[in-house]
Amino acid sequence: MKSSEQLSKIDGKTKIAGVFGYPVEHSLSPLFHNAAFARLGLNFVYLPFPVKPEELKAAVKSIRSLSMVGVNVTIPHKEKVLPYLDQISPGAKAIGAVNTIHNKEGKLTGYNTDGDGFIESLKKQGGFDPKNKNVFLLGAGGAAYAISFALIKSGIKKLILANRTYSKGRALLEHLKKNFQDECQLSLVEFVEKNSSFIMNEIDLLINATSIGMHSGDPLLVVPEILPPNIFIYDVVYNRKTPLLKLAEEKKLASLGGLDMLVYQGALSFEIWTDQKAPIETMRKVLMEEFIAHSS
Ligand code: NDP
How far is the C-alpha of 139 from the C-alpha of 209, rounded, in Å? Predict the structure, then answer.
């Protein structure tokens, strides 16, 4: 069934999911969640809700009063939403951010599927198992927190961090040390070290978890000469093919872009709400079509 046919079947039993963000009009989540509901013939609908920061508490309360099945939470609410929930999964609590809320009989539970979505996409879409690998992670914002936790849980050997604002990189390093102690070799280097071939040569996986590449005209993240031939590149930016991803393609390096993480984190939210296996290929296909339509 097509999403449009599904929408015409909305009735008294339709379950409502959605996304709380501000702004939210550019969100791609309604597109692929509605396609996934339609693919499985589920009587669900997914809507965007522009929730101003001062309205967040009331909006979360409305999940209960409107008997919504749950919502995704995006910028700027991922951290601020925690106090309004009844319980928080251990993973989301450790990261300090929630991207998925599930309403089960009036009880609201917060989850964070960003990190696990990243790992799932890396393994399933990228064919790369991070276990025992050395990873260089650029960034220390929300995406970097979720990804670094998930990487350590998946058994990487070494994690090198770098962030433009060194103090924020240090805060992430300290947070990881507190949560994981000796599970992985952790270090922080200056942001300019992203161009160090000394570091890059010992790395299996390079991740851009900064916003560099989101805007047209953004610079290439690293100098091309330093990338070793077997490195895997993951750029979490999802609104365009970034210069880093273009470089990976030119150099025939294995790579993934942020759309893959978006699909897999969304699939995990979908599974929390519906208790059904998400139709990943359908979700990925509609996203890729949208991406191609807007990049041509
Ligand atoms: P935050 O605002 O929390 O963090 C932004 C990060 O980017 C910080 O590390 C910041 O460094 C760095 N940064 C921003 N501008 C620059 C610059 N000009 N030079 C160097 N570093 C810079 O954002 P998020 O972590 O939430 O998001 C980061 C990226 O990840 C975005 O592109 C976002 O769209 C994407 N994302 C993708 C997801 C997916 O599913 N694919 C999920 C979540 C996010 P500093 O600390 O110095 O400011």
Answer: 5
**Ligand 1 atom at shortest distance from the alpha carbon of 265:** 40
The model carries a pTM of 0.94
Please tell me the residue having the least CA distance from ligand 1 atom 43. 143
Residue 168 Cβ inside 6 Å of ligand 1? The answer reads yes
Distance 7 CA to ligand 1 centre (A): 34
List, as one string, the DSSP characters of 179-218: HHTTSSEEEEE-GGGGG-HHHHTT-SEEEE-SSTTSSTTP
Is 78 annotated in the active site? Answer: yes
Cβ neighbours, 10 Å, residue 250: 9
- Active-site entry in 57, 78, 93, 123: 78
| Tens place of pLDDT per residue across the chain (296 aa) | 666 666 668 999 999 999 999 999 999 999 999 999 999 999 999 999 999 999 999 999 999 999 999 999 999 999 999 999 999 999 999 999 999 999 999 999 999 999 999 999 999 999 999 999 999 999 999 999 999 999 999 999 999 999 999 999 999 999 999 999 788 999 999 999 999 999 999 999 999 999 999 999 999 999 999 999 999 999 999 988 999 999 999 999 999 999 999 999 999 999 999 999 999 999 999 999 988 887 75
Q: How far is the CA of 152 from the centre of ligand 1 (A)?
A: 20
